[in-house]
Design brief:
16 strands, alpha/beta, Serine/threonine-protein phosphatase, Ser/Thr-sp_prot-phosphatase, Calcineurin-like_PHP, 33% helix, hydrolase, EC 3.1.3.16, five-stranded mixed beta sheet, six-stranded mixed beta sheet, 449 residues, disordered N terminus, Purple Acid Phosphatase, chain A, domain 2, binds manganese (II) ion
Length: 449
């Protein structure tokens, strides 16, 4: 069969965003701060350009410098003990400065992280332990600050790799900062960080659930000559999201493996043959051999390949309340209309079958707040399914406990509390979206909640 090729996919190629005209216009002398702060994007760049007419987009970021800048921002932003007002003038000024500076850095960062790291990764990556695994973040930069302070920058975890299970954006006010920070980490140390794709790292989703509105709010109407910088920033993020891997397999000699992804087990209904047999990891890998899922968009026109890969990001376990209903027909998967109908609920037998055929003993996934809000994680399917969620004060209104998972060298899996609700309570107001009084705020809050 001939490989389906959707010409729409070409639009997702990052380099196609950057026409020659765009390149020519984005020179250093043409950059201007959005809100008139002192700003110096040069401070994160590797070298001085040989001449002033070199396009800013052809420059290179020094990831360590950008990392240090983001960390020092977080320290001041969240640790001003005498000034706990989340909406204080100090913080507004800090935001203006940060956004002015990041504005021109973001397209560069996205391009560089694709070229130096993401495009070299297969769609299902393999990793050895030791690992720390974190669930959904959803724009909560304070949680990232906490994770950085206690784990990423803690020498005790120097030999650990970090897996994030996706859903970095939407529903939280600092989605831009979260992605910039994680991409910076990825660029700084590509082997130490595994950033998986969540269903919100899909343009069709994040244009509806807050991220696009947030980018437009932060970067306002910003043009350099005829180039719409705000649009470039939003598209740059989504281009990079298209290159995120969909799952990770944790392997260690002498042990069964662990499957990590955002949603869960893809349904076998999508297989051309052997519909009762679960997907093998080799088959899933083969699906993507010609298809880096440049547009993992579920739709009536999407190919079966796209849909099967898409389900890794979207599927949920069958809700507990319906499991004992006599009406159920002993199927492995049930179509999930709650999430738009292009994905499935998977049953415990589906989990067992997927694990058996792939020599897995456990699936670790995010995606669902409701199974983890009391302990930060939830165990299901007789210990074969672990859901973890790492965004505290979810949507700025919840008071949930968050979790993370440790997988050590002997493949011992330990889910733990990341932050108790009392620990994160003082930062609760930082996860509200109404940061500034702005005519657009209400509209943005509406899409967020
Ligand atoms: Mn999700």
């Amino acid at each position: 069969m001939v490989e389906e090729h959707d010409p729409e996919d070409d639009k997702f190629d990052f380099d196609n965003l950057l026409t020659e005209q765009v390149r020519r216009e984005l020179t250093h002398d043409n950059l201007k701060p959005l809100s008139g702060t002192e700003f110096d994007p040069e401070q994160f760049l590797k070298s001085v350009p040989p001449n002033k007419n070199v396009s800013f987009l052809d420059r290179e970021i020094d990831a360590k410098k950008l990392y240090q800048y983001m960390v020092s921002y977080m320290k001041v932003y969240y640790d001003i003990s005498t000034e706990m007002d989340a909406f204080s003038k100090i913080r507004q000024t800090m935001d203006d400065q940060l956004w002015d500076t990041l504005c021109y850095i973001i397209p560069l960062l996205c391009r560089q992280v694709i070229h130096e790291a993401l495009r070299h990764e297969p769609i299902i990556v393999t990793s050895h332990p030791d690992l720390l695994i974190f669930g959904d973040i959803h724009g909560n930069f304070n949680d990232i600050y906490y994770i950085n302070r206690h784990y990423i920058s803690n020498s005790k975890y120097d030999h650990y790799r970090f897996v994030f299970l996706g859903d970095y954006v939407d529903r939280g006010p600092k989605s831009v900062e979260v992605v910039v920070f994680l991409f910076t980490c990825k660029l700084m140390d590509p082997h130490r960080f595994i950033l998986l794709r969540g269903n919100h790292e899909v343009q069709k989703v994040n244009k509806k659930y807050g991220f696009q509105a947030l980018v437009e709010y932060i970067f306002k109407d910003n043009y350099v000559k005829s180039l719409d910088i705000t649009k470039l920033i939003y598209q740059s993020f989504n281009c990079a999201f298209n290159f995120l891997p969909l799952a990770a397999i944790v392997k260690q000699d002498g042990h069964k493996s662990i499957w990590c992804c955002h949603g869960g087990v893809p349904s076998s209904y999508l297989k051309a043959t052997n519909k009762d047999k679960p997907w093998t990891i080799d088959e899933l890998n083969a699906l993507s051999s010609h298809l880096k899922p440049n547009s993992l968009v579920p739709s009536a026109h999407a190919s079966k390949k796209v849909l099967a890969l898409n389900e890794i990001l979207w599927n949920d376990p069958l809700p507990r309340r319906v499991r004992s209903k006599p009406k159920l027909q002993n199927k492995l998967f049930y179509r999930n209309m709650r999430r738009g109908g292009h994905c499935h609920w998977f049953t415990e037998p589906a989990v067992i079958a997927f694990c058996e055929v792939n020599n897995l003993r456990l699936i670790i996934r995010g995606h669902q707040y409701k199974y983890s809000k009391e302990h930060g994680y939830g165990i299901d399917c007789d210990g074969r399914l672990l859901t973890v969620f790492s965004s505290s004060n979810y949507c700025g209104i919840e008071n949930n406990v968050t979790g993370y998972v440790v997988v050590n060298g002997e493949m011992i899996v330990t889910p733990s509390v990341l932050r108790k609700n009392t620990e994160s309570e003082q930062y609760r107001k930082f996860n509200f979206f109404e940061i500034k009084v702005n005519p657009k705020t209400k509209q943005i809050t509406d899409v967020l909640l």
